[in-house]
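As the next step, I selected for study a record pairing a protein sequence with its backbone structure tokens, which the following lines show:
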Amino acid sequence: MARDKEKRSCGQLWDEWKVFVWDPRTRQLLGRTGSSWGLILLFYLVFYGFLAGLFALTMWVMLQSVDPHVPKYQDRLLTPGMMIRPYAEGLDVTFNVSQSHTWLHYVQALHQFLEPYNDSVQAARNAACTPGRYNEQPDDAVPNVPKRACRFNRSALGPCAGLGPPHSETYGYGTGQPCVLVKINRVINFFPGGNKSINVVCAAKEEEDAALLGPLQLFPPNGSIDLMYFPYYGKKVHVNYTQPVVAVLFANASMDVEHHIECRLRGAAALRPDPRDRFAGRVAFRLRMHRA
């Protein structure tokens, strides 16, 4: 029968632990000599260096197949998406006409968004293109030649341009007649088709809400988007491109009512909203106004 080991004191255990950490007799650290630790560190240095090199090589090979000017895969972008400005969380534009702090951030966002659209900025940066036709600019055997962008003047947005009374300071948010901008997302080499201008149409999502929402005013007139703003060639070559927008003025919307509005692109047959994507060729948002 094996003899029971004698119990060791705390001092003995502590001495054994110190010897394990550093043994001055064999000059071992944690049970290994310096040469053993050196070989282990060398192994892992080579191993992880190889992995880092393999990762870098893989990334380099992948980047050689990526065009910095045009996305590699665009097959799902048959219809451009749409969005509104000012951006609101959950696309819910809610404010109290009598309390400026509830709508001032919308006004500031619109000011900031429309600054590049100032007529003076557009005249300095962009060209006066011929309306009614595509602004095609072939490379002529020289790839990625810088493209000229067509002017989209802020003044085309009428009372929603923020350039004159009564919307000069508040875009109507201070008077209960707010403006919402509808913009089309940029899609490289997108042609609306049919050689006809497209336009944005907005209406109440529910028929019973139409009377409470009232008639909507669109700027440019009829929400028209000219063909000269297409195609878009990408931000690296189409540097000063300013995407067209349509302003929606809610002049007679009822107070204290949640209005559900949907804006759609209308035009050529190529514009087919995807029922699985609520932003493809359309955008839906809510508008709620209160007056304390």
